[in-house]
Structures are given as C-alpha cells and as structure tokens.
C-alpha cells in the first residue's frame, strides 16, 4: 500500500498499480485512451497527463503521463493543474484535427469514449483550419465494420488483436500521421476474438456490423444481464433489445470469468432469437397430419388429458435448457423417467467429470485462474473451437512464467511494452496433446498429435512420472516417454499448473488420464487446477441434476411403457442416430416438444409449445467450472413465449396436478432446486431474488434516456399502457426503477456520469481489472473436499493400432458451425466450415486421394461424399470430420469409417 | 537450411536472406534486410512479394507489411529505373534545393512521388543526406551528387538511362 | 597528436588499409586493452576521461557502460551497437569517420566490446551511406582475416562478431531504443525506458548503443589515458570534437578541434566566415533539433555545458547558419517538414502536432498566415516539450521552432502582416 496526494487530497492506494489506474479507482476522472486494464499502459496517446511534484517545495511540477508512473508512496500530483488540463485539451485537439466529426451517423455515437473525453477535456472550438486526411476503409468480414477516418491512433486495436489474442492478420501500417490499422489486404479477420475490437476501440473505427442491420443507439436499447448460450464456458453478456428483437450482445465484465472480452461466436451468435425459424405460437398436429398453429387454450386443453396420466410420461431435458426447466421436468416425471438430454457419450463422460471434480483432490479453475496458470497441459481438446474464451485465457497463461523475469528487473507488470521488451519471445510451458492441429499450437512448447487412446497413454505416463503410485504405462515409445518426461518436469516446476481436458473426443480414458496427472501434481501442495471442457451452456447443470442419457431413454422406452414424451429444448437428432430416434419417437402417442427453434425433433412432435430463448426468459446455467450463473429475460414480449418449466406448470395444473402450484415465479423454482437437488444447492446465491429492490425500486432494464417510452407500442394502443411486470426478476421492463449501481449479478448497463461508453466499467469494479463491486457474480457449486484419497484410474488403453481398411474418425469442432444455435445467424453461416474429411498426408497418398477429391465415406450405415482435406498434424490411421455443421447432421463420432 | 522451391523468391534472393539469418537471434529480425534484398533485385515490393517474404521468414504478410510500410526506403509502389532522392532538409534548403527541385520537376515533367512515363526516373524528397557542406545534394540510386546547380543536374541526369 | 579522430584522414588519399592503419599506430589501443587490461579497467579509464556521447545527448559514456551486468552470471549474448544512423539534418561528421578511416571504428568496436564483454556488435548504418558501407565491409573483412574479430581474439578467450545492418530509412531509427526495434526487424518505435538498454536491450539482452564519434575516441583514450584526453579540451568537457559548418559560409566543412573552441573561431577561421554578400543572423548549433543561437552567442565556447547555458544544446556540433538573405520562417518550415515526416507516429502530440506546425509555417510562407498562428506555434513549442511526448524526438523538433519565434518573432509577424514571405 501507499499514500498519494492528488490535488491536496490524500488517498491510500495500491503501489503495484500506476497512477491512472489508482485515480480512476478512487473516482477521479482522468481522460485516457491507450491504457486498458487488461492490456496495460504503453503511453502512446498522452491523454492522461497530470502534473507531478517532486516534494512539498516543488511548486512548478512536471507533466507526466499518469498511466506510466507507478503509484509509489508519497507521490504528489495534480489533475486540476491548469497546464496539465490545457495539455489534455490539446491532445484532443490534435486527435480531432483529422477526425471526420461524423458523430450523428456514427454507430459509436452516444457510447463513444472519444466523445466523452472531448467533453471531459473541454475541447470545444476547432482551430485547425487545414485539410483533413482521409483513408480508404477495408472489408473485414461480416462481423466488423471499418471506418478508419475516425481513428485516433491509440493502438488499442492492434494491441488487442496481436498482443493479447495473438492474431497475425491485422496490424498497423505506415508511419508519422499516416498510420493505418487494418489488414494487409481486404478480407475476413481470422481471429476468433476479433469482435472485441468493437469494445476495445474507443471510437467508431471498429463497430458491430450486425448491429448496423438493425441499428439502435445505446440508450434506446432494453438490456439485461445474460449468460452466453453458445458453449460451456458461461461468459457473462449483456443482451440488448429494441422492437422485440435482440440487437446485439455486449461483454458483461465478470472478473472471474470472461473479464473484458467475448469470443465471436458468443458476441455474434444471438440472431437465432430473431430467426424466421422461431416457434412463436403453440402448435398441434392436425387430423391431416400437419403440424399447425393452435391456440394456447386448445393445446393446454389437449395436454390436460394427456398429462393426467402422469405415469405414462417420460421427460427428456436439455443441456441448453435452464436448470429450472430441467428440474421441473425431472420432478414432474420422476427421477427414473427423466433423461438429461445428453448423448450416451456425453452423459457418461460428464458423470465422470463431475465425479472427479467432486471427489478428486483438484479444483476446477475459473477463467481468471486459467489466465494466471504458469504451466499448461492440454489433453484432447481443440480449446479455441470447443471453449473459445478459455483459449483466450490460456493464451495469457504463457506470459506467467516469463513475468518472473520482469519482476526481477523491477519492471511493473502494467508497463506493457517494457514487459514485452523483457519477455521477448519467451513463453511459459504449454503442451498440447490433440488429435489434430489446433489454433493454440502457435503458443505450444510442444505438440503431440495422436489418436485418443495414445493421448491418454501420454497422460498416464506423465502422471506416473510425477507420482510413482500412479500406474505406469507399458510399452511406451521412447520418444513419447521423453515427451512425458519433459511435460512432467515442466508441470512439477510450476506453481500453478493447469490440466485441460474435456469430453469433445468422447474418450473416457483421456478424462481419466487427465485426472491422474492433476492428482499426481496436487500431491506437491501446489495450486493445481483441472479444467474439463463441456460443450453447452448447461451441460454441467444437467450433469449435476443427474439422469439417464438420450440413449437410455431410447433403450428403456419399451419397458417404461410410456405413451407420452415431453422434450425440453432439445433436438434429439443431435444426440443419437437417426434411426433410433425415429423409432423412439414413433412409439409415442404424444410427443410434446417445448422449444424455440424448429428442428428435426419438432417436426416429429404432436404438440409444440414455444419456449423463450435467453431473450424472453430467465434462468440458471452451470458452466464447465461448476459456476451457477443467472441470466435474465431481456425484454417483454406478448407472444406466448415461456420458460419450459412454466409451460409444464400451466399444463400440469390444468391436468389437475398440484406439484407446481406454488411456482408462480422463478424464485419459487430456484428455491425448490435449492432444497431438493443436493448437487445444486446454493444455486439461489447466483442472483438476488425478484423481490430485491433499492429504495423501494426494482432495477430498470431501459436507460433513463430511453426514447419512445410512451410511443413504442402506439401502433397497438395510443393510450399509455401500464408497464408490464416481471414476476421473475428484480427488473422493470422500462426506464422506471433504479438505475444506479446495482448488485453485480444485475449489471445490465455500463454507464456512469461523464462516462457513456463501456469505459465506465471502472466505476463498477471493486478493483479495476479485479472483482466487480459486491463480488463477481455466480456461485461455485463444486469444490474439492478437504482431504480425500484419490484412487488413481488404471484403465490404461493399449496403443492405437491403425486398421488397413478403416479410419478411426474423430470429431473436429468449429467455432462457427458446430454450435446448434449460433449457426442460425446468417453472418455466422458465412463463416461456417463446409463438410470435409481430414486425413493424414501419407494416408491420402496411400488412398491416392488429393485435397478436394470427394470419395464416399461410410460411417455406421450412412454414406457421405466428403471433400478431402490433408494435414500433417493428424496421425496416420485417424481421420477427422467436422461436427454439427449443415451436411453433417447425422454423424455421430468418434467411430470407424470406410473410405 | 535448404532453398525452398515453393516460394517465388529467387534462389539468389533466398541465399542472400539466409545469409542475414546468421546475424540475428531470430529469422524475423532479418525482415528489413530481406525486404531490402528483394527490392534490390526487383526495384520494389509488391503485395505478392510481401507474402513470399512473409512465408520465408515465418511471419504473416500483415506483419511484414507493417514493417515494410514504416520505412521510407522500402517501396510499396513501382518506381522508375532510377530513383532521384533530392535532399530537402535544412542545409540544402538554405543553399537552394527548392530551385533545384523545381528544375528537376520541370525537366522531367513529374512531381515528387511520380515516375516519368518512360519509367526512367522517379523523384522523391529525402531527409538530409549527410553531405551538408556540399549542399544542395541529391542521391540517385546509391550515388550521391553534391554542390548541385541546374546545369550540373542536367549533366548528372544524363548518366542515368 | 591533437586530432586523434582525424589524424589518418586524407580525403585525397582515401582510407588506410589494415596494414597502413597498423603502421600508423592502429590497433594498439586494442592490443593494450585486450592484453594488459581487465574489461573493468577499460570502462574505468573511459569513465575517468570524461568522454560524453557525441550522438547528441552528451551522456557520459563510461557511466553508461557501468550499467552493463558483468561477471559470470551476466546474461549473454551482450550487444554493442554503433549508432551510425546519422540522419539529423545538418550532421555529417560520422560519415567522414566511416568513409575515411573505417579501421578506427572497427578497432573502437573491438575495444569497447571488450570492455562490456559483448558477444556481438552491430554497426547500424543509414542506407544512404553507401561509400561508408563499402569501406567498413572491406575493413571488417580484413580484420576477420587477421583474427581480431571472431573467436578467441588475441588469445583472450573472448569472442566478438561484428556485423553491419543497413537501415531502410527513417530518422527515428537513430533514437537508441527505436534503433533496437529496427535491428529486431520491427517498426522503429521507441521503447519505454526503463528498462534501459544496458540492462534490457536488443533481444532483451544487455546492450550498449554509442555514436560513431564517441566510440572512435575510445582506443585513443585507452592508449593515452584519461588525463591526456581531458587535456585535449579547452574547457571542462573533455576531448576533441568534430565541428561542422554548413550554410552560406565561404568554406563549409568539418574540423576536429579541441572541445570548447568558440563559435567565432569555428565560423570565422575554419569555415572562412560568411559569404561576401550575406550577413550572419543565427545558427542552429548542433543539428536540426537544437535551439537557434544568435550573434550575442558568437563567442560562446562550444561545449555541452556552455551551449546549454546559452539555451541550446551542443547536439552533434554541426552548425547550420542562418544568414540575412534567408527567411527564418522558411528555414524553420524546412525543419518542421522534416520532423513531421519523420515522426514515428506513436504518440499523439508529435504525430498530429508537428503536421499542424508544418502547415501553419507553410501557410505563413504562402501569405496565408493568421493573427493567432504564432500563438498556436508557441503552444506547440511548449506542449511538445520533454516528458509530454513519448521520446526525445518531438522535444528536439520544437527546439528550433520555439527559439526562432523567440529571436525572429518580428519576421513571423511580417509574414502575417504582409501576407507574403518578405524574402520572396
Ligand atoms: C530522434 C532521435 C534521433 C537520434 N539520432 C541519432 C543518430 O542518428 N545517431 C546517433 O549517434 N545518435 C542519435 N540519437 C541519440 C541516440 O538516442 C543515443 O543517445 C546515442 O546514440 C547514444 O550514443 P552516445 O552516448 O555515444 O551519444 C538520436 C536521438 C533521438 C531522440
Ligand atoms: S515523440 Fe512520439 S511520435 Fe514522435 S518519434 Fe517519439 S514516440 Fe514517435
Ligand atoms: S492512457 Fe496514458 S498515455 Fe494513453
């Protein structure tokens, strides 16, 4: 700690930070551009100038950049000093010399940091009388708009894209006052985190191109805190609406999870909410066999009879439905007749993962913990494609070990370019064992491409080297033994080693091997973490709730003698093979599907009810870490879009069941989960209840400047309508209500006096770059027990043996395409991979196949024509096929295929 | 290291660049040399050449271009067979380089940054050539010409075809 | 020997080859250092000699060397870099040394490299110096032949490789940390200090950057001692200095003279005085980025301390003369055009401020000046000062500007009043 003096006032600050950071922390407004809490200081914009005085006797002082000066004890500065203030004003004046002054037509308008800083510094009169320079803009792909003329050369974009996200297809060009930020030539930005440019850029150079298609100003959007629905990481987002549709997704800072950033799938995958394939009304199969719109009363009336015979009903939940909905379904049909909606493989593996995390000695880390890991070993995950934001976190981890050098030469860690000058090319230990090349290979110390069993063998070997009690691997190749040795050494030298694995390859032995490595490391009393990647927003939630798989449902359907199946938000055709699902669904008289998008399963339904997406409903998801997080309905809608549990409640009450009578709002369901589902206890802590209020007010979803408050529904009714109530959330749907600092789980709008842009975040954080005020939201449901004796897994597989006539085919994941929901967005479709089969170069040669050839590929009865892709990074005898993307709908991997 | 036949760089260019690799801790450090070497052979650096150099140095084209576009002696646009660099810095200015510049412009019918139609000359301003005691001065390709007068410029230009 | 730096130079004859250079006493400094002295002794004698950096900033060379980690635990490779970028307008002294006596620089690199136990040396040479490059390459090849470079030099177990890096332009490359980035094949953006290059420099390793002229003094200091070197000077600042004069004098050129020789002597005696039809009005004493001095400073001893006291800097010691037939506003415009174009583009005041300055000066020259232009120029003079920008480039850029306004304000005003340049 240190004491500093700012304009005569005394402040206790943290000496490890710089003055800008600490002043902002204390609520002192200092304008800035180039500094970013996640990316440190570089001192390029010179906007954060203050006067520094040597001591009491120094009356003149010297202008310094507050972002470049450490907050050492006794530092004396003035922000108000007239010279410093004049200089700051000049900086804006310089930056504006070439700025187009096009605020009215700029998407950034109203949430522009440049606007804020211009006002804050007082620059209001233009003296520069010469011609402005202009630039030609670039096409950067479907996600990001480029308007270089607005650039103020703060270098934040390139620092994020290159230095933080390690993208190499974006840079700064030219020199003097002709510096250009963009690409070497027009083209789609290749980095999976490019969308962050939109939030990182303090002005309107990089803006959300998808927002442009239905543009709305910040203050005219209705917003709510949300959780990303596109993978198992659980990034915190803000969903924003106008006129009944989601307009954009913004990052919602959570110090433990995503911090300042989102991946492009998460930011741009929202458009399924607005999709033409949405189910917006109840439907019933008519006598002509067609599925047609029906009134709610009609459908409920129908369900009343069906559900009255409760014994004959089974339920299938979903990893993309909320904990609450799954819980309701399970409660209604009974534990023995509830299925989680996971595939056989996923179900088995998630159970393993939960077992290991609950009983094992090692903790599952938050993304923050991952960013801070100092040695990493990944087994079998292509993290960039299966858990994108975890990959971004992992990219930060390779800096941890070299940062020690930085400390040694006494360079503060926030001094970014100085840090880079010290670190140079050094990277901490980072090992990847995967089935094919991954997007993280560029930071890897060593990569090992192998078939899943061989990956597991490597893991087992590492574990054995770390702890003799862990079983040894027989017949290990010398080369692999050496690799294991290298990995074991690096991990045991680390202070915060991290093992990453997951269920994407469908391999149980990999999960076990990873657990052994982590367990053998943890014996040394260090902070070992293990992170298992799961694919969907609530995979862990249904895993914790417990239940059979879709396969179990299929296999036991006959014996259960059910005539009705209720399916919540799940397309079973993505979980099991087509024939078995077809047969399965045919057995039922009633197939009741509650979902929000049409899919192969809804096609087979007898009754369909419209579920709400994250836009129209609220609930809880549990992420890979075991963190339960609440998302809130974003906007009011008058369609019959409801939480699946609410539909169930309505129907069962009509049928005369009283199970859910008390559940008149989300709190009641959350309360029931809390009481009745042991593994989900504490889930209620994730967010305040709907009764929460401040000064008697609920929180407002809309900003105080929302336009059209009384007119927005004037096409329905010219009289001002009573704002609808939200029984589930401590939010109003309008601008009425509390708009000050809310509890952290309820942040829906980063906005503060004088700070209209997302830079206002500093006002919401307890510690800049650290936790939010009141603590980062979400509650961890799984912690390793105090002292346990972990018994090592011993199922070491034999080494992979390739077959002559078949390839062992593993799933290959794509950030754009493998996820069921985001692919609904047209701009994501543009970026989606086309079907292919990936082969090793030698195998392709043996088969006399060239890249692009389209051989017949046979896989469990299905034959596909797939173009060949060739790689050196996939082992011989193994093939890869993309999963989830159109054209590969019916492919369940891994498995053996014939070419 | 062997010569990579896939890149469009000539064997000679590759050899010269490889020689530079020996002088640095990383291949990427030879980026500026690589650009200068290839420019020596080809006169300028086209977009395709940026890509070839990038591949050879295990960098991305964007990274190479970011460097290339920073330095004024790396040409990202075609230039004439001879490049006239007329010093426009202070000592030469005092000694009348503006008039020399006007003379060249008029004689060749081009402005700064332009190339004559016959591709014989490109005219560029350059920072102090470090021969201020013989101002005004210019450099054509890599030869320095000093104590310029309009008449002297005429004779000098004749030597460059 | 009172002209140690230039004693071998005879432009009519050209540079000495290795044999003749040795005959003229060359490589004795190297022999002495490597055979008779510990590395630390070399640093000590340089420190004691009072040698200050000739690249412009005048930092004591031995002190800088003292920051380099020494001993068994020191990081390696360590680098010694000769800053031969010489792009400061009006400056051409290093060119003379390299073209006319390349072996002196090579010897200097070896001796200085030995002092810091460097493993690799680079001569960072501006691209335009083709003749210097040729001379240096030849000298280096000769020296490698004689095994003064390479492994185990003179049986000392110390190895030193020497390479030439030719730059691709840009004045900012001369700034020592930007130079490091350029050598690493990156954009030449200055680095943050700290860390300072002697501790964290090229590729993150200990690195010394010194100017050509600075280094060239070292073998002589080693040979003749610190006291000898101090005695060469007329003032407290030690040694000799290569002074230069350009502009409308009778005999523009370069002369090695005792440090502290007066401006009058340099201009009147060595440069032959002003040309007949013009009068002296002012001088930029040490390259483009120093403040104007005027007639009242004519008798100033030209050393670091005295020139600083007079409100300017000795800089590179190469003077550019302003005469009464030349427009001071035009001269400053030429300078600022250079600076605006050469700004690296990293920090705001420099990147966007200097083009504004340049445009105003052009407007003044073209008769489009406005009443508040001088105030705007002054604002830039003040706000582009040290500390306000990321590196020393912009502060240097505004030195001639602010001093021109100070001494020639009336001329600026006349441009505005008359709506034209009075000299045109
Ligand atoms: C913009 C700028 C340009 C510079 N250019 C040169 C140069 O061309 N040559 C040089 O020796 N020093 C130059 N310097 C000074 C160097 O940064 C550095 O101080 C010098 O090379 C150190 O050597 P010395 O101590 O021997 O003078 C420049 C400094 C700045 C700020
Ligand atoms: S002052 Fe700033 S823009 Fe100018 S050269 Fe230095 S770092 Fe670059
Ligand atoms: S924020 Fe401090 S210089 Fe940019």
Q: H/E order of the elements of chain B?
A: HHHHEHHEEEH
Give the strand line-up of the largest sheet of chain C: 6-5-9-7-8
Present as ligands are: flavin mononucleotide, iron/sulfur cluster, FE2/S2 (inorganic) cluster
Annotated CATH topology of the largest domain in chain C: Rossmann fold
Oligomeric state of the chains in view: heterotrimer
Q: Kindly state the number of beta strands of chain B.
A: 4
- What is the CA-atom radius of gyration of chain B, in angstroms? 18 Å
Please render the helix and strand layout as text.
The complex is a heterotrimer of chains A (899), B (161) and C (424).
Chain A: E1 2-6, E2 9-13, H1 19-25, E3 49-53, E4 62-65, E5 76-78, H2 82-96, H3 113-121, E6 144-146, H4 156-164, E7 171-173, E8 180-182, H5 197-200, E9 206-208, H6 209-212, E10 222-227, E11 236-242, E12 245-251, H7 264-268, E13 283-285, E14 291-293, H8 296-308, E15 313-316, H9 323-333, E16 338-339, H10 344-359, H11 367-371, E17 375-379, H12 383-386, H13 388-397, H14 400-408, H15 416-423, E18 430-434, E19 446-449, H16 452-466, H17 478-493, E20 497-502, H18 508-522, E21 529-533, H19 539-545, H20 550-560, E22 564-568, H21 578-586, E23 590-595, H22 600-603, E24 607-610, E25 619-622, E26 627-631, H23 644-654, H24 666-676, E27 699-700, E28 731-732, E29 779-780, E30 806-812, H25 826-831, E31 837-840, H26 841-846, E32 856-859, E33 862-865, E34 868-871, E35 878-882, E36 895-898
Parallel strand pairs in A: 1-5, 15-16, 15-22, 17-18, 17-20, 18-19, 20-21, 22-23, 23-24, 27-28, 30-35, 31-34
Antiparallel strand pairs in A: 1-2, 3-4, 3-5, 6-9, 7-8, 10-11, 11-12, 13-14, 13-24, 25-26, 26-29, 30-36, 31-35, 32-33, 32-36
Helix pairs in contact in A: 2-3, 8-23, 9-23, 9-24, 10-18, 10-19, 16-17, 16-18
Chain B: H1 11-21, H2 31-42, H3 47-57, H4 61-68, E1 82-87, H5 90-94, H6 97-108, E2 121-126, E3 138-140, E4 143-145, H7 150-158
Parallel strand pairs in B: 1-2
Antiparallel strand pairs in B: 1-3, 3-4
Chain C: H1 18-23, H2 28-36, H3 39-49, H4 61-66, E1 79-84, H5 93-100, H6 102-116, E2 120-125, H7 130-145, E3 161-166, H8 176-183, E4 207-211, H9 212-224, H10 226-231, E5 240-246, E6 253-258, H11 263-270, E7 280-284, E8 293-294, H12 304-309, E9 318-323, H13 328-342, H14 348-365, H15 373-383, H16 393-418
Parallel strand pairs in C: 1-2, 1-4, 2-3, 5-9
Antiparallel strand pairs in C: 5-6, 7-8, 7-9
Bound molecules: flavin mononucleotide (FMN), iron/sulfur cluster and FE2/S2 (inorganic) cluster.
FE2/S2 (inorganic) cluster (FES) binds next to loops of chain A.
């Amino acid at each position: 700690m240190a004491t500093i003096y700012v304009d005569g006032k005394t402040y206790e600050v943290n000496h490890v930070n710089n003055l800008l950071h600490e002043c902002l922390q204390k609520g002192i407004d200092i304008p800035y551009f180039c500094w970013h809490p996640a990316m440190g200081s570089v001192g390029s914009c010179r906007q954060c100038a203050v006067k520094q005085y040597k001591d009491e006797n120094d009356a003149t002082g010297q202008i310094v950049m507050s972002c470049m000066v450490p907050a050492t004890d006794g530092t004396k500065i003035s922000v108000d000093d007239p010279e410093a203030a004049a200089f700051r004003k000049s900086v804006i004046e310089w930056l504006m010399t070439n700025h187009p002054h096009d605020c009215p037509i700029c998407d950034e308008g109203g949430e522009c940091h440049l606007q804020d800083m211009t006002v804050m510094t007082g620059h209001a009169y233009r003296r520069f009388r010469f011609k402005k320079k202009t630039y030609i803009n670039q096409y950067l792909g479907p996600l990001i708009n480029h308007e270089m003329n607005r650039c103020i050369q703060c270098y934040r974009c390139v620092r994020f894209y290159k230095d933080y996200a390690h993208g190499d297809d974006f840079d700064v060009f030219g020199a003097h006052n002709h510096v250009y930020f963009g690409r070497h030539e027009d083209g789609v930005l290749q980095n999976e985190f490019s969308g962050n440019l939109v939030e990182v850029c303090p002005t309107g150079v990089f803006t959300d191109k998808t927002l442009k298609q239905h543009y709305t100003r910040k203050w005219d959007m209705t917003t709510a805190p949300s959780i990303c629905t596109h993978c198992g990481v659980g990034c915190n987002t803000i969903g924003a609406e106008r006129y009944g549709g989601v307009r954009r997704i913004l990052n919602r800072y959570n110090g433990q999870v995503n911090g300042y950033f989102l991946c492009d799938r998460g930011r741009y995958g929202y458009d399924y909410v607005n999709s033409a394939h949405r189910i917006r009304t109840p439907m019933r199969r008519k006598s002509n066999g067609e599925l047609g719109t029906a009134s709610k009363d009609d459908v409920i009336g129908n369900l009343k009879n069906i559900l009255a015979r409760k014994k004959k009903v089974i339920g299938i939940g979903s990893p993309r439905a909320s904990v609450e909905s799954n819980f309701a379904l399970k409660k209604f049909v009974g534990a023995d007749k509830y299925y989680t909606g996971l595939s056989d493989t996923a179900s088995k593996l998630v159970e393993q993962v939960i077992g290991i995390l609950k009983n094992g000695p090692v903790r599952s880390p938050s993304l923050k913990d991952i960013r801070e890991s100092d040695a990493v070993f990944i087994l079998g995950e292509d993290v960039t494609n299966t858990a994108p934001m975890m990959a971004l976190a992992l990219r930060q981890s390779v800096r941890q070990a070299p940062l020690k050098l930085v400390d040694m030469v006494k360079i503060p860690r926030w001094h970014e370019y100085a840090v880079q000058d010290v670190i140079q090319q050094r990277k901490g230990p980072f090992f990847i064992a995967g089935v094919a090349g991954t997007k993280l290979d560029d930071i890897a110390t060593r990569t090992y491409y192998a078939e899943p069993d061989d990956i597991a063998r490597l893991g087992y070997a590492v574990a054995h080297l770390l702890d003799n009690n862990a079983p040894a691997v027989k017949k290990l190749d010398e080369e692999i033994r050496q690799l294991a040795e290298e990995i074991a050494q690096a991990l045991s030298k680390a202070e915060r080693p991290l093992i990453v694995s997951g269920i994407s390859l469908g391999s149980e032995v990999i999960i076990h091997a990873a657990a052994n490595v982590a367990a053998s490391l943890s014996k040394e009393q260090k902070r070992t973490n293990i992170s298992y990647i799961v694919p969907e927003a609530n995979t862990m939630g249904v895993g914790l709730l417990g239940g059979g798989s879709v396969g179990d449902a299929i296999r036991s359907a006959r014996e259960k003698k059910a005539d009705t199946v209720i399916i919540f938000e799940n397309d079973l055709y993505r979980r099991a093979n087509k024939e078995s699902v077809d047969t399965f669904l045919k057995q039922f008289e009633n197939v009741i599907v509650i979902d929000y998008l049409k899919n192969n399963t809804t096609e087979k339904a007898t009754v369909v009810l419209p579920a709400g997406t994250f836009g129209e409903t609220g609930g809880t998801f549990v992420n890979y870490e075991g963190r339960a997080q609440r998302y809130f309905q974003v906007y009011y809608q008058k369609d019959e879009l409801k939480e699946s549990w609410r539909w169930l409640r309505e129907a069962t009450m009509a049928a005369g069941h009283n199970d859910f009578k008390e559940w008149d709002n989300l709190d009641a369901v959350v309360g029931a989960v809390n009481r009745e589902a042991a593994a989900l206890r504490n889930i209620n802590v994730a967010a305040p209840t709907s009764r929460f209020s401040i000064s008697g007010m609920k929180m407002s979803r809309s900003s105080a400047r929302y336009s059209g408050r009384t007119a927005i529904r004037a096409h329905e009714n010219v009289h001002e309508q009573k704002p609808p109530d939200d029984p589930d959330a401590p939010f109003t749907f309008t601008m009425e209500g509390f708009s000050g600092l809310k509890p952290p789980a309820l942040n829906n709008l980063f906005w503060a006096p004088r700070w209209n842009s997302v830079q206002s975040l500093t006002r919401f954080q307890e510690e800049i770059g650290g936790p939010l005020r009141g603590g980062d939201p979400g509650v961890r449901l799984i912690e390793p027990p105090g002292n346990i004796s972990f018994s090592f897994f011993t199922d070491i597989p034999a080494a992979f043996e390739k077959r002559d006539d078949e390839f062992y085919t593993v799933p290959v994941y794509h950030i754009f395409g493998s996820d069921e929901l985001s692919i609904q967005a047209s701009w994501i479709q543009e970026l989606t991979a086309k079907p292919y089969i990936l082969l090793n170069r030698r195998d392709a040669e043996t088969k006399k196949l060239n890249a692009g050839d389209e051989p017949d590929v046979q896989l469990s009865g299905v034959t596909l024509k797939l173009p060949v892709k060739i790689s050196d990074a996939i082992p011989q005898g193994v093939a890869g096929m993309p999963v989830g993307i159109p054209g590969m709908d019916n492919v369940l991997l891994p498995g053996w295929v014939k070419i | 290291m062997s010569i990579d036949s896939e890149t469009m760089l000539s064997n000679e260019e590759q050899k010269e660049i490889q020689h530079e690799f020996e002088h640095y801790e990383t291949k990427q450090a030879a980026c500026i040399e690589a650009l200068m070497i290839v420019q020596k052979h080809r006169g300028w650096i086209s977009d395709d050449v940026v890509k070839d150099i990038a591949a050879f140095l295990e960098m991305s084209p964007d990274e190479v271009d970011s460097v290339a576009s920073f330095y004024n002696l790396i040409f990202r646009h075609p230039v004439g067979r001879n490049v006239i660099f007329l010093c426009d810095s202070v000592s030469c200015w005092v000694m009348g380089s503006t008039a020399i510049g006007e003379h060249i412009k008029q004689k060749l019918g081009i402005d700064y940054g332009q190339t004559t139609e016959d591709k014989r000359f490109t005219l560029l301003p350059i920072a102090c050539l470090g021969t201020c005691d013989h101002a005004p001065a210019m450099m054509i390709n890599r030869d320095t010409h000093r104590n310029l007068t309009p008449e002297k410029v005429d004779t000098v230009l004749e030597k460059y075809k | 020997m009172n002209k140690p730096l230039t004693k071998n130079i005879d432009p009519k004859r050209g540079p000495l080859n290795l044999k003749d250079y040795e005959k003229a006493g060359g490589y004795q400094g190297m022999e002495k250092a490597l055979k008779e002295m510990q590395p630390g002794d070399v640093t000590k004698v340089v420190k004691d000699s009072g040698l200050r950096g000739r690249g412009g900033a005048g930092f004591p060379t031995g002190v800088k060397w003292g920051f380099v980690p020494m001993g068994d635990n020191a990081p390696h490779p360590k680098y010694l870099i000769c800053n031969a970028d010489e792009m400061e307008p009006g400056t051409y002294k290093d060119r003379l040394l390299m073209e006319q006596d390349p072996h002196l620089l090579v010897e200097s690199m070896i001796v200085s490299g030995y002092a810091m136990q460097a493993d690799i040396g680079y001569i960072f040479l501006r691209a335009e110096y083709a003749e210097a490059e040729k001379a240096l390459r030849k000298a280096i090849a000769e020296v490698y032949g004689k095994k003064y470079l390479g492994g185990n030099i003179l049986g000392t177990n110390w190895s030193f490789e020497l390479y030439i890096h030719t730059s691709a332009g840009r004045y900012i490359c001369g700034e020592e940390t930007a130079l490091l980035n350029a050598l690493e094949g990156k954009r030449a953006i200055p680095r943050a200090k700290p860390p300072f290059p002697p501790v964290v420099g090229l590729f993150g390793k200990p690195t010394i950057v010194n100017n050509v002229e600075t280094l060239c003094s070292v073998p002589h200091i080693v040979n003749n001692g610190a006291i000898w070197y101090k005695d060469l000077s007329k003032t407290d600042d030690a040694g000799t200095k290569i002074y230069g004069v350009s502009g409308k004098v009778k005999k523009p050129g370069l002369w090695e003279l005792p440090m502290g020789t007066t401006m009058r002597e340099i201009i009147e005696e060595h440069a032959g005085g002003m040309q007949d039809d013009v009068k002296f009005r002012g001088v930029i004493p040490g390259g483009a980025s120093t403040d104007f001095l005027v007639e009242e400073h004519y008798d100033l001893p030209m050393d670091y301390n005295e020139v600083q006291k007079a409100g300017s800097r000795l800089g590179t010691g190469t003077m550019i003369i302003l005469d009464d037939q030349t427009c001071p506003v035009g001269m400053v415009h030429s300078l600022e055009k250079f600076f605006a174009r050469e700004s690296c583009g990293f920090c705001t005041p420099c990147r966007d401020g200097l083009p504004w300055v340049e445009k105003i000066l052009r407007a003044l020259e073209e008769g489009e000046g406005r009443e508040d232009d001088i105030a705007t120029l002054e604002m830039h003079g003040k706000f582009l000062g040290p500390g306000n920008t990321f590196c020393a480039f912009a502060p240097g850029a505004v030195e001639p500007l602010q001093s021109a306004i100070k001494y020639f304000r009336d001329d600026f005003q006349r441009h505005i009043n008359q709506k034209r340049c009075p000299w045109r």
